[in-house]
Write a structure and sequence with these properties.
Layout (H helix, E strand, L loop, with lengths): L1 H17 L7 E3 L2 E3 L6 E4 L14 H4 L15 E5 L5 E5 L2 E2 L1 E2 L18 E3 L3
Antiparallel strand pairs: 1-2, 3-7, 3-8, 4-5, 5-6
Length: 122
Amino acid sequence: MRTVIAAVALLVALLAATGASAAAPHLGDGMLVDDRGMTLYIYAGKGAPDATACEGSCALNFPPAIADSLDTQSGSLTIATSASGKPQWAYQGHPLYLGRMDKKPGDHQADGLNGMWYPVRP
């Protein structure tokens, strides 16, 4: 019986690790959110996010919203290529980012940060 329970637990852990395709960004409380309900941001500055746009490291504080390899674009939601070469979600041509200062779904702590970061409110 323990062997069966251990095998089932291992199977569940493996399925969770490989996961199914993450859901595309969608509306949550009037903002675009990722598959975990975390707010997605656009950078309103010129060019790529830089030191003037962030406090500390932009790459750490605003990681790109990476698309899963099985995700497909639709309408205003497209898949671009991030600076690291990975597929990144974009909205109306603007790359989407997560805000590390947000701790739970619905948070939008970076709203207006440095006059350059804004949640997407379609």
